[in-house]
Amino acid sequence: MPPFDPAERMNLWFRSLGWMARQRPVTWFLVNVGNRIDPMLMRATGGRVKTTIGAPTALLTHIGARTGKRRTTPLAYFTDGDRVVLIASAGGAPRHPAWYRNVMANPEVELWSGGGGRYLAHEADGAERERLWGTATSFYPGFADYQRRAGARTIPVVVCEPMAQS
Questions:
Q1: Is residue 2 part of a domain?
Q2: pLDDT tens-digit map of 79-138
Q3: Residues 6 or more apart whose Cβ sits within 8 Å of residue 28
């Protein structure tokens, strides 16, 4: 996975994209349309074309908790060393996204963004969650907006650790 350090200074273009993504119609588009077309766009273009334009986006391939079927979901990510961090925001919906439930039931996942590999996922908690949540909201302030929209639901922070390649 290409590293993405959210502590690096974001340029005006990236901050503008972040502002747009926080608007409800754009959030709706990304969750309901982007999630369907980004896997095809990204694979066809080696990860260069996607609805999230310049944002770091990974394709998460996971196994359905009930169906056992392979699913692919495009998600914004950032890296924490060699770990990949995903936020289960669902745009601030009151329920956790399906991919989160699937990953908690089947934590062995694949991540791809022009390259990738196999990872073992877990939900961050305690001080680790607070640190990563702080990083996530500084990287994309929309996550804080989504938490307000989500109400009583605490948005999970999912950490993906690389698995040894055999």
A1: no
A2: 999 999 999 999 899 999 999 999 999 999 999 988 889 999 999 999 999 999 999 998
A3: 91
